Amino acid sequence: MTIDLNILQKTLCHAMCSEIRVREKTPELLAIDTPFTFPDRDQYQLYIKVLSGGVLRLTDMGHTLMHLSYENDIDKFREGTRGALFEQSMAETSVAEQNGSLFIDSTVENLVTNIFHMGQAITKVNDLRFLKRSRAESTFYEDLKESLYMIVPPEKSFWYSQQGQSKACNDHP
């Protein structure tokens, strides 16, 4: 199969650009509509603040952490393992956080790349919600069960169920 790279390039550029809209909120603030969404289908909030010297600050204006705060204790995202993962996510995407707002300073030439970096950062921060104790506990027990089955055959384990009856280790009374 032969692919015409020029046609593919034009098709991808057209398709991706058709999903992006820029709206003026104020002369110093532009809103960027993208297809990036949270799991509840709320759109990622991205804005461009025009700073002095031709710098464009791409920011979520605090929306990401506010969105997560509806169901999470955001302070926990700043401590322990979650805090380390939060900082790692920021470093990997070159995004910074200040007073709850995620941002990256950009030039016009790097704006597209930085929009993707912001999208990645918001996605990674949003994924920290999976580290809730209840989720970690349930996956821990699933992993433990799987590991034990590698040592003890399932039919001899506590979790083995036959016809709805739970058996606890067949070899022991």
How does this structure look, described?
The radius of gyration is 24 Å and the shape is extended. The protein contains five helices and eight strands; from the N terminus they run H-E-E-E-E-H-H-E-E-H-H-E-E. It has two domains: 24-131, Yope Regulator, Chain: A (2-Layer Sandwich); 134-166, no CATH class. The longest helix has 19 residues, at 133-151. The strands form two sheets. Strands 1-2-3-4-6-5 form a six-stranded antiparallel β-sheet, covered by helices on one side. Strands 7-8 form a two-stranded antiparallel sheet. With 173 residues, it is α+β, with helices and mostly antiparallel strands. It is 40% helix and 19% strand. Strand 3 (46-50) and strand 4 form a beta hairpin. Helix 3 (80-93) packs antiparallel against helix 4 (111-127). Residues 162-173 have low confidence and may be disordered. It has helices at 5-17, 63-69, 80-93, 111-127, 133-151; strands at 21-26, 29-33, 46-50, 56-59, 96-98, 101-106, 161-162, 165-166.
Structure characteristics:
Yope Regulator, Chain: A, 6-stranded antiparallel β-sheet, alpha+beta, 2 domains, 173 residues, 19% strand, two-stranded antiparallel sheet
